[in-house]
Specification:
Elements lengths: L2 H13 L3 E4 L9 H9 L18 H8 L4 E10 L6 H24 L3 E5 L27 H4 L3 H7 L10 E11 L11
Antiparallel strand pairs: 1-2, 2-4, 3-4
Helix pairs in contact: 1-4
Bound molecules: iron/sulfur cluster.
């Protein structure tokens, strides 16, 4: 395993994630059918933020961005639910996941790594997104979800040998971050 991946996995454990795994580059398959699911707008986020389609960029732009990286990790937060309708537990796990992921990404950046994070869920940094009238207010913190990027999360997990489902009465939140060495050329401004 590359030292950069070993370090990232240990930082993920320190950040509080329940599970993590190296991200295989062949797991990053950006799919038009996932974009079709976004267009169906069941999450009511399509065209609402800079981090959701179409504002987050085309699948081709995503492919171009990730092609600059050879390393990355996948992280999971597993929430325990009383039953399958325990929305409080789901929301709590989502909030913990977001907090831990932002902390992990910030730590990697502080160490000088070039990163491209893909989280879970729509961007909630601002009460109202500026999309599409003005530039993003926090491009250094805003990130697309894995689904918004065009990834089928269950497939990515399978290819990386990490469970997508962690058993009865659990809810699992997943994110990934691509990591480049400190001396890697910075991503273009739109990354
Ligand atoms: S940081 Fe604010 S402006 Fe940028 S995508 Fe998120 S909600 Fe929109």
């Amino acid at each position: 395993m590359e030292p950069i991946v070993e370090e990232a996995l240990s930082l993920a454990a320190a950040a509080g994630f329940d599970k993590s795994a190296p991200l295989r580059s062949d797991a990053l398959v950006f799919r038009e059918e996932v974009r079709d699911m976004c267009r169906a707008d069941r999450c009511r986020s399509y065209g609402k933020t800079w981090t959701c389609p179409p504002g987050c960029g085309t699948l081709e732009e995503m492919r171009r961005k990730v092609s600059a990286f050879t390393d990355g990790i996948l992280v999971e937060t597993i929430g325990k639910m009383e039953d399958e309708f325990d929305y409080e537990a789901i929301e709590a796990a989502a909030a913990v996941h977001k907090k831990h992921f932002q902390a992990l990404v910030a730590t990697l950046r502080k160490k000088g790594y070039v990163v491209f994070p893909m989280g879970a869920g729509r961007c909630t940094i601002c009460r109202e997104c500026t999309y599409p009238d003005a530039p993003c207010r926090a491009p250094e913190r805003a990130m697309p979800s894995m689904e918004a990027a065009g990834l089928l999360v269950s497939d990515v997990c399978e290819r990386c040998n990490i469970p997508y489902y962690n058993g009865k009465n659990t809810t699992t939140f997943i994110a990934c971050v691509l990591i480049g060495a400190p001396d890697a050329p910075p991503l273009s401004k739109d990354a």
